Structures are given as structure tokens and as C-alpha cells.
Amino acid sequence: MKQLKTRQTKFWIQAALIAAIYATLTIVLGSFGYGPIQFRIAEALTVLPALTPAGIPGLFVGCMVANILGPYGMLDMILGGGATLLAALMSYALRKRPILVPLPPVLVNAVVIGSMLYYAYGVPMSLLACMATVGLGQLVSCYALGYPLLKILSRYENIFK
Amino acid sequence: MLRDITLGQYYPGNSVIHRLDPRVKIIATMAFIVALFVVKSFPGFGISFLALAAVIAVSKVPVKYILRGLKPIFLIIILTFMLNMFMIDGEVLIKLGFLHITREGLYTAVFMAVRLILLIIGSSLLTLATKPMSLTDGIESLLKPLRRIGVPAHELAMMMTIALRFIPTLLEETDKIMKAQQARGADFETGNIFKRAKHLIPILIPLFISAFRIAQDMAMAMEARCYRGGDNRTRMNGMKLGKIDVVAVIIMLLFLGVVVAERIWL
Predict the structure, then answer these.
(1) ipTM of the predicted structure?
(2) Contact call for residues B123 and A74 (beta carbons, < 8 A)
(3) What is the distance between the terminal CA atoms of chain B, rounded to a whole angstrom?
(4) Residues of A in contact with B123 (CB under 8 A)
(5) Tens digits of residue pLDDT in B195-248
(6) Residues A124, B87: C-beta atoms closer than 8 Å
């Protein structure tokens, strides 16, 4: 019983630190982190749910915090957070197939953020073009950086215990 | 390199807006965003602009400070404006070679730009006049009803607080790791985008290890102090709805009423 409680606190604190890493990376490497042509390096972290379930709330809150601090305000915070949460749950479900793990964040964000930019911010490209530009940025950060990150981090599994 | 990053946009003050209950401010901001999408005409934007200007004046946040926050998206607004202006077909007003400005294009361009600017200023006012910590308290309290369907409201708010607290620590850590790797010959500045992305791995792995070490220590420290989640927890500065909050809600409802009336009758 006691053991269980400790593990629970640790789960949430690990999730909180994952959120902090996500927000930090978005800020440091952030010149293209927001807006229509997004290339958010921090999105590479979306592979984390495959390694630890703490990654799911971690990414959700991380994205919300990053967007609170970003220039787009509350709409981005709610929609971006929601999209990230959905993608993280899907990545977690796909954790047995590493090659598919970075796929949900690419697709979900392309659809949700693409539509947000098109409908709410009136970016004057077609809906599909909005989705494609967001998706392309996501593809690079999730597959070119996220996938190798997943491979390497799974060698250090003990840090997630 | 990491020295000149300002975190968040909170502008310290003691105005009525600063002192409002964070829950009221969050809901009012949401209502304002909804109102901007209800509005379909320029008089409606005029009303929204006046309301926003009044709130800014009361909050005593300098306009210069607010506009500085707009800078990163200024380019996007201009780009959107230009593209809307030139791309939409209709009655031609001015012809410049192969480019032409149409009445419809000009209308859409101005309409979208005004909405975008109001949207961004309106929603950033929330973070300008609310401490991040009271913002997370407000979010926790607003999420509380969702606990019934299993949303861990307290835990999510605690995570936000901890994440905000540790961003500066991790920024420093990232800076240190980058310098350490550069001293070992790491190169972050050349190569194409794929290569550059790959070069970040030697930063990310140590960052993870150090963050998880912090998590380990902190969980242990919290356990040692008998942390047991949100139930029966007390706070140093509790939230209480006061008179100014009631007044703020009434003003907000009036504003929504006017905007809806404008949409229906004008």
C-alpha cells in the first residue's frame, strides 16, 4: 500500500518534469515553434508515451504550458493541449510497434492545428495546405529526431523506473 | 545565448484586473474569444475593441508592453493581410501590373487582421495580468467538477505549477549541457535540417537523465512531508469570489448581450 502511494507521487512528478522539458525545448529552440509554419523540436518528445505512461499527462501539460507562454494565447493552449493528449494516448497504444509511435502526433496535429490556423487565425492558404505545412514540420521533428530518440532512450529504460 | 529569454508575460501590478479571481478571468477570456467569432461586422469589432481597451486601461498594463508581445506574430499578420488582399477575386479597385486589389479582398483582409489582433491581445491580457501560479489554481478549481468522470484535476494543476517552476532550472541545465558538448566538439550549427535535428540527441539524453533525477528527489521529499494529493489540502492564499468579481461577471454578460444583439439586429 505504502509502496503504491510513493509510486503514484513519483508518476505525477515525472510527468511534471517531462512537461517542463517540453516547454523548455519549445522556448530554447523556439524561433519556429509557433505559427503556421511550425517546426517544434519539442514535438520529438511525443515518442515518450511508448517508454513511460507518465509521458501522456506530461506531454499534455507541457504543450499547455508552452502555449501559455507563447504568443497565441488561450485557443492554442486548449486546442494544442487537446491534440497532444489525443496523440499521446494513440502513441501509447502503439508502443509495441516503435516505427508507428511517432505517427499519431504527425496526423493529429496536422488536422487539429491545421484547422485551427485556417478557421480561427484566417491563414490564407487552403485548409489542406495549412494541414500539410503543420504535418511536414511534425514529420521532421517526430521521425528525424523523435524516432532515433526513442531508439536511444529505450536503452536507458532504468531512468524511467 | 539563453540569457535574453523572458519567461511568460506577467506584468506585476495591483489593479482591479490583477485582483480579480483567476476563475472569473479565465471564463471572461473564453467569453471574449467566443464573442469575436460571433461578431460578423465592423461595428461589432468596434464594440469589442472598446471593451478590450477599457479593460487594458483599468489593468494599467502599458500598451507598449502589450504590443511588444505582438511582435513575434506581426509578420504573420502582415503576410495574412497581403495574401488575403491579393488572392480574393471580386470587383477590382486598384490594378498594379498582374496584381489587383478587389473590394472583397480588402474587406476580408482587414476583417481577418482585426479579428486576429483582437484575439491575440484579448487572450494575452489574461497571462499579462494573472500570475502563472494563480492561473493554475484557477484551472484546478474550474476542472474540479470533472473529477467525477476521472479527470485528475489536482494532479494536472500541480504538474503545471512544477513545470513552470522548473523551466528556468532546465534552461540553465540545457545551456550547461550544450556548452559541455561543444567543448567535446559537438556541432549544432551546420548541416541540413535533418542533420541538425539529429545533433540535438546528445543534448536531450543528459537533459532527460538530469530531469528524472530531479523528479526522483522531489517525489521523495514530497513523500517525506506527507504529501497526499488534493483532498483536504489548504492554501496560503485561498480563492474567494468578492464584490469586484460579481461586478466583472455582470459587465461580461452585458458585453456578450450587446455583441449578440448587434449580430441579430444590425
Answers:
(1) 0.82
(2) yes
(3) 53
(4) 72-75
(5) 777 788 888 889 999 999 999 999 999 989 888 776 677 777 777 888 999 999
(6) yes
B219 assigned to some structural domain: yes
User: Is A17 in contact with B123 (Cβ distance < 8 A)?
Assistant: no
Distance CA B147, CA A5 (A): 19
Confidence of residue B74 (pLDDT cuts 50, 70, 90): confident
| CA–CA dist B123, B136 (Å, integer) | 16
Q: Do B167 and A71 touch (CB under 8 A)?
A: no
Answer yes or no: is B247 within a domain. Answer: yes
Tell me how many domains chain B contains: 1
Task: Tell me whether residue B104 is in a domain.
Answer: no
- In angstroms, the CA A156 to CA B211 distance is 14
**Partner-chain residue, chosen from A29, A65, A156, that has the shortest CB–CB distance to B163:** A65
Give the whole-angstrom CA distance, residue A79 versus residue A87: 12
Facing residue for B166 by CB, picked from A14, A17, A144: A17
Sign of CA dihedral A130, A131, A136, A140: positive
List pLDDT tens digits, range A87-113: 999 999 999 998 999 999 999 988 988
Q: Please indicate, yes or no, if residue B175 is contained in any of the structural domains.
A: yes
Long-range contacts of B36-44 (CB under 8 A, 24+ apart): B36/B115, B36/B118, B36/B119, B36/B122, B37/A120, B38/B259, B38/B260, B38/B263, B39/B115, B39/B259, B39/B262, B39/B263, B40/B263, B41/B262, B41/B263, B41/B266, B42/B111, B42/B114, B43/B262, B43/B266, B44/B259, B44/B262, B44/B263, B44/B266
Instruction: Give the range of the structural domain holding residue B207, as residue numbers without chain letter.
Output: 2-61+129-265
Cβ(B178)–Cβ(B204) below 8 Å: no
Q: Measuring CA to CA, how many Å separate A40 from each of A35, A86, A136, A150, B103?
A: 10, 18, 11, 17, 37
Which of A9, A20, A39 minimises the CB distance to B211? A20
CA dist B196 and B232 (Å) reads: 49
- Cell numbers representing residue B135 in the block: 492561473
Which neighbouring-strand residues pair with B94? B101
Of A5-9, A151-155, B215-219, where does mean pLDDT reach its minimum?
Answer: A5-9
- Yes or no: say if A133 and A37 are a contact pair by the CB < 8 Å rule: yes
Which residues are paired to B95 by β-bridges? Answer: B100
Collect all residues with Cβ–Cβ distance below 8 Å to A15 and sequence separation of at least 6: A54, A55, A56, A57, A58, A61, B159
Q: State the angle between helix axes of B201-224 and B153-183 in degrees (0 to 180), rounded to the nearest 10.
A: 140
